[in-house]
Amino acid sequence: MLPLLVFKSIIFAVVPLILTTCSAYEIPSVKVDVLRSGFNLTIADEPGIKKVLYIVRINGECPGFMDLIDKSQPDWTASHLATELKDKDMLDISILVDHNGEAYKTFQNLIVGTNNNQGIIKRNLPRKCYGNNSLNIDCKPSQTLVADKLEICKDQLIFEENFDGPTINAEKWSFDIRNLVTGRQTDEFVVYDNHGDNIFLNEGSLHIKPTFTQEELRKASIDFGSRCTPVENVVTECKLMAKPPRIYVPPVNSSQIHTRETFRFKYARIEIKAKLPKGDWLLPYIMIQNNAPFDRKQMRIAFARGNEQLTVANDLKDIGGRLLYGGIVKNLEEHNTYFKEYYGISHFGNGFHVYTLTWTNEAISMAVDGLMYGQIFDNIDEYFFITLGVSAGGHLEFPDNLVNPNVKPWKNTSPKAVKSFWQSIENGTIAWNEESRHMIIDYVRVYAV
Predict the structure, then answer these.
(1) What is the mean pLDDT of residues 146-150?
(2) How would you classify the pairing of strands 252-254 and 190-192?
(3) Distance CA 38, CA 430 (A)
(4) Distance of alpha carbon 104 from alpha carbon 98, whole angstroms
(5) Domains in the chain: ranges and CATH
(6) Belongs to which family (predicted)?
């Protein structure tokens, strides 16, 4: 018996599907014998069976068990005498069979307590053939979990996006469509939408481009209707009308996409090649997030402010775009952060870099261009999803205590903050270069760990 640490995929040496040659054979049903001490799994021997691999999880828990049987005695039996099964226990069993040199796979399930504990599998899913390759047992156990996927091998590429198509792939990505000025400390001065001016593909890369709202300060309004994707408050995130002198809609339009509905995972190595945006008060979000609206957590893969230079008064530290951050936001509302920092030679928006975040069940490490610059020991145990977006302003990421306080046109948490940002745009104090304001993503790759 081999222990299975979140064993998620026994792969057949990247085999092609050869359904026409495989349709004649079906894997026999598994018999589960529940004993006083432990249980046995058995497939009856048939001509042509060379190897059998069982992967078992009990009640969905990991670690599970993996057994490779390469000789029948006389049938193909795996014994687990130290593991006691109870009534109503659920067994999820993946069976892989080498039959005459071709690999076959099926999933079978059992609820203990049927047939007087002579547990014949009660349900068979459709059997699948994976071509004329014998079982590849070199697959290493992985910590990685992916929602709705049963099997993954360590170092397996589990998600890839190269942005090569004519439009953003709706089977992978969804848009945030909401207003970020809602009267909370987490506000940023942005409206997220899916306008083609703000997000598009060009020459195999994703571009996210923030723009200034074209409406007049006092007349701007928002009403997303059924398109809205609120996170916390359906009223304020979906509809807002300017009511001077206290309420103003965000002065910046931008975009943010995510994989919340299509790809959520736990523990992985995320690698993203990107060029960050340059422009005063811009914020790039290359991160993964959990799916808990009132306990929001983030792991930032690459974060550097858009300002060329921004010096803090108390220690004269430059927190402008040369300073790269990566790490954990444990609680977004409280801005409870655990970041590691790395100073680049120049602003990280001056060129492309490869940003990597490696998340295991013990630690999170950050790297840029292959150089690891920080590690945080933490055992976060939630599913996360990928998020890519550009924001601006807000109350959390730009401190008030700058060497030249007049540089920043608003005060954090001030009720006039949004109005002040609007006015700085109108008088030309805030102006962004047409090209450098873009955040450009070349590719996104996620590997199992």
Answers:
(1) 77
(2) parallel
(3) 70
(4) 6
(5) 2-141 (2.60.40.2140), 160-447 (2.60.120.200)
(6) Belongs to the insect beta-1,3-glucan binding protein family.
Q: Which strands sit side by side in the sheet containing 39-43, from one edge to the other?
A: 76-80, 39-43, 31-34, 118-120
CA–CA distance, 179 with 297 (Å, rounded to integer) = 19
74 cis-preceded (ω within 30 degrees of 0): yes
Written as six digits, the tokens of 101 are 């040199």
Pair 208, 192: CB distance under 8 Å: no
The encoded tokens of residue 361 equal 């069940």
Q: How far apart are CA 442 and CA 321, in angstroms?
A: 20
Please, which contacts does 238-244 make with residues 24 or more away whose CB atoms are closer than 8 Å? 238/178, 238/179, 239/179, 240/179, 240/181, 242/217, 242/218, 244/217, 244/218, 244/419
Using alpha carbons, select from 122, 110, 125, 138 the residue that is nearest to residue 11. Answer: 138
pLDDT tens per residue, range 224-262 = 999 999 998 899 999 998 888 778 899 999 999 999 999
Question: 87 burial class (0-12, 13-18, 19+ CB within 10 angstroms)?
Answer: exposed
Give the phi and the psi of residue 216 in degrees, each rounded to 5.
-75, 145
Residues 6+ apart with CB under 8 A from 191: 178, 179, 180, 213, 222, 249, 250, 252, 253, 254
Enumerate the β-bridge partners of residue 318. Answer: 311
Lowest-pLDDT range of 76-85, 151-160, 338-347: 76-85
Degrees to nearest 5, angle at CA 7 with 270 and 102: 110
Residue given tokens 């049938």 in the structure block:
75
